[in-house]
Fold this protein.
Amino acid sequence: MFDVAVRKVLGDFVLDARFKSKAAVTALYGPSGAGKTSIVNAIAGLLAPERGRIAVGDTILFDADNGTDIPAHKRRVRVVFQESRLFPHLSVRQNLLYGRWIAGHASGKLDEVVQLLGLEDLLARRPRTLSGGERQRVAIGRALLADPMALLLDEPLSSLDEARKQEILPYLEKLVGAARIPILYVSHAREEIERLADTVVTMDGGHVKSIEEVRR
Amino acid sequence: MYSFSAEEMEAIRLSLRVATIGTLASLPVGALAAYALARWRFPGKFLFDGLVHLPLVLPPVVTGYLLLILFGRRGPIGAFLESTFGIVFSFRWTGAALAAGVMGFPLLVRAIRLSFEATDRRLEDAARTLGANAPLVFLTVTLPLALPGILAGLVLAFAKALGEFGATITFVSNIPGETRTLPTAIYTYTQVPGGDANAARLAAVAVVLSLAALVISEFLSRRITARIAG
């Protein structure tokens, strides 16, 4: 469940958006420049709103009224970024286990995630040698293995060509079916959203325009 | 021609020790200064930047003189260090290492600062969302990615330290076995009759050592870069 109300002035752009969603998968839909990534950054703790309140599930992550602002590294909100952001100096296996390594204790099963995302043959490789699609699968695995309480996928397919998109979408559908945590899926592609999301939050110009249920 | 006298060997060994320890000891301070200059905003940053670069632009003799004033036995810092920790710099090899470290410091900071500035901040953000606090982000992402630059800075500073003359001779003089490093030894040999062959031999050693440092750093830097690039 996402409960987001944020206001932030970023130069000429004013982000002033609020939405609530109880769906398992919430899509954040809208053209580029609508403020979708700013919402992701605010929920993840990478962008501090001036006003507002952000809650995921029962956890209040940010509340300007009483000064609550849980630092990014303690939020357990894991992000799959548009450009993967895999660590170039680490192998695929080390990237996947980064969250576990930082936490100092095991969380999630490597084998399960590797199988879910079809990463068996990539574990020893470096991120630079992977295709765009493979990188995004590893990034999804890295987020899943870091003991997430919510998952934010920020246009995970937008940098890929059509064939790669069709290659990853089945993995995403499997993931969405198997995950027991709220997922926020950001995209400007209607097709992806219709295949994956239960609720669509449409944004434009920094504001929420509509919130609708998707019939799948 | 090919065997070194005890005196020459002493100067070579001392030089290597002084340059190595001086450079390594300045690394933590240099890395911190570089990080502060690359990432932080603070009042007096412009002044701090100037202070860091001072040894690069001052006449080395002046740097040596300032070290003598500050770190000499009666200097404010020197007296404090001697009474508190028993560390003495004046006319000791430790003082030569200090002078070497100080002279190489601006080169060290410049190289490391550049690589901190070039590090992709988005990767650091990714690490934060995966649970890493600020020190862990630095240790697991920023530092490894900056490693080639740190190495380059170390080699530059080491080469500078190896050749340091003016500040060293002003601060700790030219005492055989204690503060007579390669450059001061070469200078001494050129001042005595019949010292030409010794001076030439030590000059050749200086060329070889400097080139070796350069080759080693290039090799390591390529290996690290290749590893990062996969």
Chain A has seven helices and eleven strands. The longest strand of chain A covers residues 2-10. The first helix of chain A runs from residue 36 to 44. The radius of gyration of chain A is 17 Å.
